[in-house]
Structures are given as C-alpha cells and as structure tokens.
C-alpha cells in the first residue's frame, strides 16, 4: 500500500457512492435523518480533492491526513467516526517498515475498533458496524491464513453483503433510527449500505488486477 493506491481506491469509492446515491438516500429517508448521503458525498469529494497532497506522503501519513480532512469536512456523527477510522489506520501503519496484507488487515481492525470506541457501539445495533466488524474479523483470519489478495477480496464482498442484509430485521439501538422502535425493523441501515458499497468498490479494484 502507498499513497498512489490510496488515491486510486478513494476515486473508486467516490464513483461507487455517486452511483448508489438513490439507494443510500432512500434508506436514509426511511429510518435516518436524511443527510447521510450528502455527508458521504462531501467526504468523498474532499478526499479526492486532496489527492495531489497525498501523493508526497507515506501511506500512514496519507491515511492520517484523510482522517483530519474528514473531521473538518463531514457533519453529523459520521465525520468523527470515519476520521477516527482513518487516523487509527494511519497510526497502526506508522510503525510498519514494509506494509503487507496482514498489516493492512490489522490496521483495518484498528480503524473499526476506533469507530466502536468513538461511537460506543457494537455489532447488532443496526449500524455500519454490522458490516465493518464481520469484514474486519474475516479480513484478519484470511490474512493470517496467507490467502491471496483476490481470495480475500472475494470473501469480503460476500461478508459485507451479508452484514448489510443482517441489519434488515434488527431493532435499532443507536442513532436516529433507535427512536423509531420496531418501525425500523424491515429496513436496511443506510450507514451499513454505504460501508458495503465502499468495501465492494475496493475489493472490485483488487479483483480486476
């Protein structure tokens, strides 16, 4: 991983988020506060916008800079959560001399742990973590088993989709949807959908190479 691959993945994520605008907005209108897609789009545009600045940085410093940019760009609860994710990834990779897929998996896990701590949330509460936690667990397991990048990418796509679907029949206990009680049951979580879209876009890049 280096700043060039980070920029490439950031561009792919932006394109995917734009492509799924109707899906994400529709889900957020049903049980969210209506601004999730706007914030996601704003964050993606901000990251792509600093691509030239990231080129001169190490992967760790680039991820940290992305986190800082998101913290000052995205409103609502999403900004601090995604900022914590990227900054924790950057901090974890800072100590790595040679970044391998195992170290990326550990950094991803550190980012997910940061979201859990910042949001005081866990799996089963109808949030983005219902996608991120199983993806992180699977990523670490497969990396430790020395699976190829393409094998891991294919598996993570499936896990992300399963995680998203699992939110449909959950009772929301975090965020605005938690105030809807049982009325939120039967709807997918918009944050989980965004994460599924982003994970799929990165995995598709890996699978296409």
Protein architecture, described:
The protein is mainly alpha-helical and 209 residues long. The protein has a single domain, classed as Alpha Horseshoe (Serine Threonine Protein Phosphatase 5, Tetratricopeptide repeat), CATH 1.25.40. Helices cover 72% and strands 0% of the residues. It has ten helices and no strands. Helix 9 packs antiparallel against helix 10.
The residue-averaged pLDDT reads 91
The fourth-level CATH homologous superfamily is DhaL domain
CATH class: Mainly Alpha
| Total number of domains | 1
- If you compute it from the alpha carbons, what radius of gyration comes out, rounded to the nearest whole angstrom? 16 Å
**N-to-C SSE series?**
HHHHHHHHHH
By helix and strand content, what is the structural category? mainly alpha
Q: Identify the CATH architecture.
A: Alpha Horseshoe
Query: Unreliable segments (pLDDT under 50, ≥5 consecutive)?
Result: none
Distance between termini? 14 Å
- Tell me, briefly, the overall form: globular
Q: Total strand count, please?
A: 0
User: Which strand-content bin applies to the residues?
Assistant: under 5%
Number of helices: 10
Helical content (DSSP H or I, runs of 4+): over 70%
Task: Report the sheet with the most strands, covering strand number, pairing sense and barrel closure.
Answer: none
Question: Could you name the CATH topology?
Answer: Serine Threonine Protein Phosphatase 5, Tetratricopeptide repeat
